[in-house]
Amino acid sequence: MAALPKDRMTVEEYLAWSESQEGRYELIDGVVYAQASERAAHAEMKGLVFLALSNALKDKGRECRALVDGMGVRVGAKTMFEPDAMVYCGPKLPPDALLVENPVIVVEVISPTSGRNDSTRKLAGYFALPSIRHYLVIDPDDRLVVHHERRDDGVVVSHILTEGRVTLDPPGLSFALEELYGAA
Fold first, then answer.
1. Considering only CA atoms, which of 13, 39, 36 is closest in space to residue 23?
2. In CA terms, which of 9, 105, 163, 164 is 20 to 30 Å from 17?
3. Is 184 exposed, middle or buried (0-12, 13-18, 19+ CB in 10 A)?
4. Strand stretches in 57-180, DSSP E
5. Per-residue pLDDT tens for 101-157?
6. What pTM was computed for the model?
């Protein structure tokens, strides 16, 4: 793995640097942070979330797409997060795109090292983007989804879900927690 850069970077500088790197990184306030290796539970939950979102989109026939991690979301000139899954609506991204400029839903699956950051810095950063309506923080080990939702009046409300359905409107999607965790 290459050494992390010593100088602060803009998102554009980071993207140019990261294309030649192995591993996963995020850029926070111009500083590059290496991401920890994923546990099997984390990787599996990421896949299940992506499938749940993809299936919900197919049922609605909307011009929206689900993506699993690998794409960045710019939340400032020097900050870019890489959510574990997301949904954006509108035209399909070009094949060489590295950023999603208008996500509607972003998802983070917490890990032992990311929980605090996912619930603080990322919460504030994601909701700085006007396009984001839903931010899901998912626990891969316990049956728990925290759904932060921006209402039409701009207020962000949080829902703690341990059963039932996750409703994401707009864009009008819904999936059962059973799709992530199995039957209760």
1. 36
2. 105
3. exposed
4. 64-68, 73-76, 79-81, 85-89, 103-109, 134-139, 144-150, 156-161, 165-168, 173-176
5. 999 999 999 987 766 666 778 999 999 999 999 999 999 999 999 999 999 999 999
6. 0.92
Beta-strand pair 103-109/134-139: parallel
Q: What is the pLDDT of residues 9-44, one digit of tens each?
A: 999 999 999 888 888 888 999 999 888 888 999 999
Q: Do the beta carbons of residue 21 and residue 34 sit within 8 Å?
A: no
Instruction: Give the integer Cα–Cα distance in Å for 130 and 9.
Output: 24
For residue 116, what are the CA distances in angstroms to 27, 43, 80? 17, 19, 17
Any residues with CB less than 8 A from the CB of 29 and at least 6 apart, and which? Answer: 8, 76, 78, 79
Distance CA 32, CA 52 (A): 31
